[in-house]
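We give the chain.
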Amino acid sequence: MNRATISADIVSSTELTPCALSQLQNEIEVFVEQIEKEYEDTWGRLSKGDSVEIYIGNPQNSLRIALLLKAMIKKFKVDTDCVGQNVDKKRLSVFKTYGVRIAIAVGEMRIADKRTNMLDGEAIYASGRAIERQRTSNKSKIVIKNTLFFDSSDAKLAQQINAYMGFLDILFKRASERQCEVIYYSLLGMSEIEISKKMGIKQPAVNQHSTSFGWNAVEQLLKYYEQINF
C-alpha cells in the first residue's frame, strides 16, 4: 500500500540569526505536533536544524499538509530582538520570498516507526532526493525556479501534479505574510469569521487577503487531489 512522505528544507536558513532560527524551529515543532493530532497515522521530525520530514499514512492528506507547512513558514515573522545587523539582506529576502522547499513523494514504505524515529522506503528516499537536487546552501548565487515538487512511480500522475505545483508556487511566491496567515488558517478548515477573530482583523479584510491569494483555486485543487486513488 502506498504512503506519502514530505521532505522539506528552509531556504537561506543560514541568513537567519541563531535566535530567529530557534524561533522558527520552535514553530515547526508546534506545527508537527498539531498535524500529528489532526491526521491519523501521520508524524514528523525536524532534522539538521533546517530540514523537516513527515510521514503520512493517507497520501490524500499530503498536499494539504505540505501547503500548511509552506504557509506556516511564509507567515513566519522574526521578532525585532532577533534581527541581525550583519546579515546578507539579499539572501535573507530569498527566505522571505520562498520560505521553504517541499517535496511530496508517494510510494511504498518499508519502515515508518515513530517510536524509533525511523523512516525507510521508496517514498522517503524519493522526496529526499527531490530536495537534495534543489539545495543552494553552499552556492554563492541562489537561483530558485520552483519550491514545490511531487514524485510518484506513476510518471503520468507525477507530471500532472507537478503542473499544479508550479501554479501553487507562483501563488506563494507573490503572497505576503498576512495572506499566508489567512491561507494557513483556511487550510485548517477555519471560516472567515473564525479567522478574523483569530487574527484580530475584520472579516472583509480576511476575504480580501483570501481572494488576492487565490484561495478558491487552491481549494478546488485540494478537492481534486484528495479524491485521487493513490
Q: What stands out?
A: The first helix runs from residue 18 to 38. The radius of gyration is 17 Å. The chain has a mean pLDDT of 92. The chain is about 50% helix and 15% strand.
